[in-house]
Amino acid sequence: MISVIIPTLNAQAHLPRCFAALVPAVIDGLIREVIVVDGGSADLTEKIADEAGAHFIVTSPGRGGQLAAGAAIARQPFMLFLHADCVLEPGYEHAVTQFISTAFAQEQAGYFKFALDDLSATAKRLEWMVALRCGLFNLPYGDQGLLISRRLYTEIGGYPEIPLMEDVAIARKLGRRLVPLRGIATTSAIRFVANGYWRQSWRNLFLLLLYFAGASPHRLARLYR
Questions:
Q1: Which of 62-66, 177-181, 221-225 has the lowest mean pLDDT?
Q2: CATH of the domain at 111
Q3: Neighbours of 221 (CB within 10 A)
Q4: Does residue 87 fall inside a structural domain?
């Protein structure tokens, strides 16, 4: 029923845990294929993907283009887009099955609740802020996953081939057709710990405001790096 599409770039540190969480749904036959779309990794990403039995392809770096390339070759009626550093909590497959079994599955897309692999109070505050953002503006990011039917994905034009803000762009296309799923996607907190939680959060917000103001995603990508 489902093709899982994972964009990567030097993801060897995270990919094994991401794959491990998918195993129950693969065994049950819910996930029929896993596609890893790599942007030119120089580490063991390809080896890890091959050993896991994933379909590995290489494209130009840029997450929007990588996601679009994965969707172009996916063969199942539903697609689940995941970041390589996301780990789905046990039991997520039941939420996915429930979603795709509803009468509205072809007209809606789902996302998971955001969590970090950090139990600190600062991390919990950030999780609360993300939940608030999703509740008020219906704006989940790519690290919350995206479960969508091929029909709806095609209807809205899919992911734009841009290096940054591709998740915001597709969320804006979907609007109120985006609904929360009963499940958690836990993301690595490494970048927040390394850069500082509030510094990283304010930088993300600043880039988002620039994007809404009309700044080029290519320029924003350079600023992000």
A1: 221-225
A2: 3.90.550.10
A3: 18
A4: yes
